[in-house]
Amino acid sequence: MDFKVNCSLFINAMSDINKVISSRNVIPILAGIKIEANKNGLTLTGSNSDVVIERTIPSFINEEKVVEISEFGSVVVLSKYLNELIKKLPDDIHMKADFNGSVTIKSGTIETRLNGFDSNEYPKLPEMDRENNVKVPFGKLTEAIKQTVFAVAKSESRPVLTGVKMEFEQNKLICTATDSHRLARREVHIQSDIQESFIVPSTSLSELMHLKESESSTLDIYYTNSFIVFKTANSSLYSRLIEGSFPNVQALVPSESKSTVTINTKALMEGIDRACVFSTEWKNNNVNLEIVNDARIKIASNATEVGMIEEYQKIIEMDGQDDIQMTFDGRFMLDALKGIQEENVTISFGGMMKPIVIKPQHSGACLHLISPLRTY
Fold first, then answer.
1. Which residues, including other chains, have CB under 8 Å from residue 255's CB and lie 6 or more apart?
2. How far is it, in rounded angstroms, from Cα 374 to Cα 301?
3. CATH for 244
4. Reduced to 3 states, what is the DSSP secondary structure of residue 112?
5. Rounded Cα–Cα distance for residues 153 and 258 (Å)
6. What is the mean pLDDT of residues 244-263?
7. In the chain, which residue ranges form alpha helices assigned H by DSSP?
8. Which of 203, 231, 249 is the last residue in one of the domains?
9. Close Cβ partners of 251 (under 8 Å, ≥ 6 residues apart)
10. DSSP readout, 84-98?
11. Of 72, 98, 121, at which residue does a domain stop?
12. Which of 328, 331, 288 is nearest to 311 (CA)?
């Protein structure tokens, strides 16, 4: 293998891949990054056995030659050392691997040698049926993930709750996450005629959001019974799927409410954030919401040894009774509100110890469900 490559492009590709590589991998070769010079340019691959990221640097970008290949081939190099080295090189990189696995790296007057591994020992990527394919705008998908992935369970006691359920229906994608105390759901309209659902690990989706891709780029999704692949023009992310049955969360959403209020999103978020300063004494960041009358809602929190805070905010619109007072985890509410981009939100109260529903005022595509806390 023998090639020259633009230094900044190589660094960018490495940074995407290096995040999934761990030096503590059970399979030693997975501590390395696979570099392949082929007819398409350079292909870099990194994995931790659950997630695989593949990044291609094409030979030409905007008609400018950025990769010059003298000899096709591949090698695996320890990512830790290669990543640290290339960030300190001043010029374009010339890399050459011999048949003994020794890798020579030159940049300007600098020459370095690293020990490589046989690329044939690197695990093969799972084969995908190209017929099982869905196209989704990258920006739409990552937005839906951001508005749901925070609600996954942090505990591994119920593995299915550590992932986001992705349901594909006729011209629709629905992302759902829950930790049994809260639920986040987001619908996205896409061009699709398949009926499938998967549970994708939240760690894989977090890596997907970090890929350096244009929001307008098209993402191809391929899948098997155990793997899913998210592919753009120059990047691919392979992820194992979580086995098991996701709970029927639709049955958890209340069909009616005792009271619904509309309030300014930014003002509410700032009020909850202030209240959380005094809620740290409690295990669940207790913040109290009380509908005072049809014009005002009170946000309050109290820490016995520190102090208390309360404020009143204007209700834009109200429907139902005004004697509602409940306590919630303030951080859960902030997570939900941060993903809502509309100016106003509606909060529906179902009654004592029943979950509230938070939605944008003019859209049902985004929904958050938060269970109240017992204060006794």
1. none
2. 14
3. 3.10.150.10
4. strand
5. 29
6. 89
7. 7-18, 79-86, 138-146, 202-209, 265-276, 330-338
8. 249
9. none
10. HHHTT--S-EEEEE-
11. 121
12. 288
Separation of alpha carbons 185 and 175, rounded Å: 6
Strand spans (E) along 207-323:
218-223, 227-231, 235-240, 259-264, 286-291, 296-303, 307-314, 317-320
Same domain, 7 and 96: yes
- Residue 325 makes CB contacts below 8 A (sequence gap 6+) with 288, 289, 290, 291
Query: β-strands 296-303, 307-314: how paired?
Result: antiparallel
Alpha helices in 2-121 (DSSP H): 7-18, 79-86
Instruction: For residue 30, give both structure tokens.
Output: 């997975």
Residue 184, token pair as written in the block: 């986040």
Reduce the DSSP state of residue 154 to 3 states and report it. coil
User: Two tokens at 366?
Assistant: 């985004």
**pLDDT tens string 155-208:** 989 999 999 999 999 899 999 999 999 999 999 999 888 899 999 999 999 999
pLDDT digits (tens, 9 = 90+) for 81-107: 999 999 999 999 999 999 888 999 999
Range of the domain at 28: 2-121
Tell which phi-psi region holds residue 282, choosing left (phi > 0), alpha (psi between -120 and 50) or beta.
beta
User: Contact at 8 Å (CB) between 97 and 107?
Assistant: no
Are the beta carbons of 94 and 105 closer than 8 angstroms? yes
Same domain, yes or no: 211 and 279: no
C-alpha span between 323 and 304 (Å, rounded): 26
76 within domain boundaries: yes
Residues in Cβ contact with 132 at an 8 Å cutoff, skipping those fewer than 6 apart:
194, 196, 222, 223, 224
Residue pLDDT, tens place only, 324-370: 899 999 999 999 999 898 999 999 998 888 899 999 999 889 999 99
* Co-location of 272 and 347 in the same domain: yes
DSSP for 305-333, please give it: TTEEEEEEEE-SEEEE-S--EEEEEHHHH
Please state the domain count of the chain: 3
Q: Compute the distance between CA of residue 145 and CA of residue 185 in angstroms, rounded to an integer.
A: 10
**Same domain assignment for residues 234 and 261:** no
CA angle 257/327/255 to nearest 5° reads 15
